[in-house]
Amino acid sequence: MVDAGSSDSPLEEVSAGAYATEAFELLGNETRLAILVALWEEYDPFGEVTVRFSELRDRVGTADSGQFNYHLDRLEDHFVRATDGGYELSQAGLKLVRSVIAGTGLEEPTLESTAVDMACKLCGEPVAVAYEDGWVYVRCTECAGLWTDAGDRSRGHLAKFSLDPAGLANRSAGEIYAAAWVHSYQRIYGMLEEVCPTCSGPVERSLAICEDHESGGPCRNCDRHLRIVARLRCTVCKELAQAPLGTVAKYHPAVVAFCDEHGLELQYGFNDLDHIARRLEVGGSAVEQVSEEPPRVRVTTAIDGDEVALELDDGLNVVAVE
After folding, report:
1. Domain DUF7347: where (predicted)?
2. Residue 31 predicted with pLDDT over 70
3. pLDDT higher than 90, residue 303
């Protein structure tokens, strides 16, 4: 329990850091928030980005010049930059407003379970896509899928992709699925390079191995169909991703070249349901644990009877290519 007399602000009791705490406190004022939104509304990424003081004050609608100047000055250290031509959002300010826009979308984000032109790779039955709480869920309409949600084993999933609500804007169900696919791969590949796509912080990479895995369906211990997956976690903002090791392997140049030689492009034109379906049908990967201590796995990608295999250590580093 926090001592009521120990601090003027509850934010001082948490561990975000003094600079971050100050930034959070700055956002608790409507005039400052209005300044940020007004600067964003005037922002043109390929044109003029600065707004003069008088114009900015008129846009915000604050009559008291002194009060407006005070709030603007408070923002300068974090979210606003003063220039000879006026004021503009700093990179932190621009990212903040973009995060709000991305997190809310232009309209209320909704997508009921909707069938798309794809078949389940397990049973061949139709696939449906739904959007819930920032996630695009890909579900088979018939079988139990590859994994289940913890606490809700009646809902089998084939895939689950994070997507900001803005990703639903002006897109059909199939286009939402494709956009979520692209966004997910960009995020995973950035984290494989150990750079967080959210905050640019360093990323920890590891193997997640279920020691008591149950085969034949989603495991009751890990809620996954796959015994071994890649786990990626930002050490700064706690962004995370979990991916099949076949996805990790398909980022390596040896596997990219192998797939290209066999008519499967991995890096271009995959914002398309037909391409996604082909990628799921061709170039499947098999995973084998070859060492327990230290943990090592072999990921083999096969097309038309040919194979390429990578051996990965616990940090997802490629230690051998066959």
Report:
1. 21-100
2. yes
3. yes
User: At which of 48, 82, 104 does a domain end?
Assistant: 104
Q: Centre a 10 Å sphere on the Cβ of residue 180 and count the other Cβ atoms it contains.
A: 25
Q: Are residues 126 and 223 in the same domain?
A: yes
Q: What whole-number distance in Å separates Cα of residue 188 and Cα of residue 181?
A: 11
Tokens 């991916």 -> residue:
243
CB atoms within 10 A of CB 127: 22
Among the candidates 69, 104, 139, a domain finishes at 104
d(Cα 298, Cα 309) in Å, to the nearest integer? 6
Q: Look at the chain and count its residues.
A: 322
Give the 3-state secondary structure of the chain.
CCCCCCCCCHHHHCCCCHHHHHHHHHCCCHHHHHHHHHHHHHCCCCCCCCECHHHHHHHHCCCCHHHHHHHHHHHHCCCEEEECCEEEECHHHHHHHHHHHHHHCCCCCCEEEEEEEEECCCCCCEEEEEEECCEEEEEECCCCCCEEECCEEEEEECEEEECCHHHHCCCCHHHHHHHHHHHHHHHHHHHHCCECCCCCCEEEEEEEECCCCCCCCCCCCCCCCCCEEEEEEECCCCCEEEEEHHHHHCCCHHHHHHHHHCCCCCCCCCCCHHHHHHHHHCCCEEEEEEEECCEEEEEEEEECCEEEEEEEECCCCEEEEC
Q: Cβ distance 109 to 103 under 8 Å?
A: no
Tell me the per-residue pLDDT of 76-127, one tens digit each, with 9 for 90 and over: 978 999 998 899 999 888 888 888 877 776 566 788 889 999 888 888 888 9
Cβ neighbours of residue 253 closer than 8 Å, sequence gap 6 or more: none
Here the CATH number for the domain that contains residue 30 is 1.10.10.10
Phi and psi at residue 283, in whole multiples of 5°?
Answer: 75, 35
pTM of the model: 0.76
At 174, which amino acid appears? G
Number of domains the chain contains: 2
Average pLDDT over the chain, rounded to an integer: 85
